[in-house]
Design a protein that fits this description.
Elements (H helix, E strand, L loop, with lengths): L9 E4 L3 H7 L18 E6 L5 E4 L5 E4 L4 E4 L3 H28 L6 E4 L3 H8 L16 E7 L5 E5 L2 E5 L4 E3 L3 E3 L5 E3 H6 L10 H11 L2 H8 L9 E2 L2 E2 H7 L3 H9 L14 H7 L3 H9 L18
Antiparallel strand pairs: 1-2, 1-5, 2-3, 3-4, 6-7, 6-10, 7-8, 8-9, 11-12, 13-14
Helix pairs in contact: 5-6, 5-7, 6-8, 7-8, 7-9, 8-10, 9-10
């Protein structure tokens, strides 16, 4: 079917959700943000090297889809014009968002504060990664920019997770940040405390936090415990992902020595190699490659580590 589709074709998905989710395995996967693909006409943007189809929707979102899901349809001139107008409006909004990101001078490792107004941020997020209820803990919080996308959107590590945001939904934090008590914290101190390493009793929470903070001695001690799982997950991430993104080479080596699984994915489909790329950590990437990690693995945006 992919041979019959070409860029510019209009397509629909006319299958039941369960079938769509099943057919997406191995073709970019399925997330809750993809519901717009059901019952909405999209335009084929391109076919990738695996013959999967990249479809752009009126929201401006681009999704990689299994060609077996798609049915090519014919639209009237008026329908095409209406769809193109929707996309034009979205492109203008995205251009404005990219301009905001540029104006704020955002770059990887910058600290930003997330908008605290729920209704505003829901509007900002339309067509920019969308909004999920799991993102509520991030409202008003300060996080770290871990990736800049070409369309101006940003990925922020905040409140124990990593989320894609419209730059209009964040404000860059200056070199010092005032706390409620009026005291100032240096940004580098905030970076280290994004995962507060307090003792909680959850061994996997402690392992991920220690790995994020670069506490190699603590990681080594935790790995000696009989009930530890080197692949344990906290806040959607593994210790390896946390250490890889922050460039903690010694910890990455410790985890590899424990036969850590290098291919575990977070909710965005990012593996340890993607996190190393987010953090611009080439030495970590080299270590992961030598440990057998797939450097060509794709996340849900169909990106390999080399694309980031």
């Amino acid at each position: 079917m992919s041979q019959q589709l070409q860029a510019g074709d209009y397509v629909n998905i006319d299958l039941e959700l369960e079938i769509v989710q099943s057919l997406q395995h191995g073709h970019g996967g399925w997330t809750d943000n993809m519901f717009e693909c059901l019952g909405t006409t999209g335009i084929v943007q391109s076919l990738d090297e695996d013959y999967d189809v990249v479809v752009v929707y009126p929201s401006g979102n681009r999704w990689t889809l299994n060609p077996a899901l798609l049915t090519r349809i014919d639209l009237t001139f008026e329908q095409k014009l209406a769809l193109q107008r929707q996309q034009t409006t979205t492109i203008q909004a995205r251009t404005a968002a990219a301009a905001v990101a540029s104006h704020q001078g955002l770059k990887v490792n910058d600290m930003v504060q997330i908008c605290s107004d729920l209704e505003k941020i829901k509007n900002f997020q339309r067509g920019h990664g969308e909004w999920a209820e799991a993102m509520v803990p991030a409202l008003g919080k300060v996080g770290r920019v871990v990736h800049l996308y070409t369309d101006g959107d940003i990925k922020v590590q905040v409140a124990g997770g990593s989320w894609i945001f419209n730059p209009l939904a964040v404000a860059k934090v200056s070199q010092t940040h005032c706390t409620e008590g009026g005291n100032e914290e240096r940004l580098n101190a905030m970076l280290k405390k994004l995962f507060d390493a307090q003792i909680t009793g959850d061994i996997h929470e402690e392992l991920v936090k220690a790995s994020a903070n670069g506490d190699a001695k603590r990681v080594e001690d935790l790995l000696k415990r009989p009930n530890v799982d080197v692949n344990g997950i906290f806040a959607g991430h593994t210790a390896l992902q946390a250490a890889a993104q922050n460039g903690h080479i010694e910890i990455v080596r410790l985890l590899i020595e424990q036969d850590v699984n290098t291919e575990i994915e977070d909710k965005d489909g990012d593996r340890a190699v993607h996190h190393a790329a987010f953090g611009n950590e080439p030495i970590v990437l080299e270590l992961l490659g030598k440990a057998g990690a797939d450097l060509n693995a794709r996340n849900k945006r169909r990106q390999t580590a080399l694309h980031i």
